[in-house]
Design a protein that fits this description.
Elements: H1 2-21, H2 25-46, E1 52-59, E2 64-70, H3 73-96
Antiparallel strand pairs: 1-2
Helix pairs in contact: 1-2, 2-3
């Protein structure tokens, strides 16, 4: 369950970065839908459990730097709402820009 919580962060970030690098509009649209959709699915999956994990980043003897992950019920509700709204925004913006000549791919020569 902890892996899904990390994917909740990593998948939309990776899809967004890949969308910036992709030249083909159809593939960019698929990535725009896949990122929030996968985040919404991960948020729904982790909402049934409370994943908790902590990782030691650095140990300086008496001082330890750790990264912690704790998804409470409130955090899961926010993640679900954010994933749902971001998916709706992506669907609307892709439909809105479908006929825009500036986003249309240029013909190949």
């Amino acid at each position: 369950m902890t892996a899904l919580a990390w994917l909740l962060i990593a998948v939309p970030a990776a899809a967004g970065l890949a969308g910036l690098l992709v030249r083909r509009r159809d593939l960019a649209v698929v990535l725009a839908y896949a990122g929030p959709g996968a985040a919404l699915a991960c948020a729904a999956a982790v909402s049934f459990a409370n994943p908790q994990a902590s990782y030691v980043l650095a140990d300086f003897g008496t001082v330890t730097a750790t990264a912690a992950l704790d998804l409470s019920l409130g955090a899961c509700a926010v993640a679900l709402a954010t994933g749902f709204v971001s998916l709706l925004v992506q669907l609307y913006s892709a439909a809105y820009l479908r006929d825009d000549p500036a986003t249309r791919p240029s013909p190949r020569r």
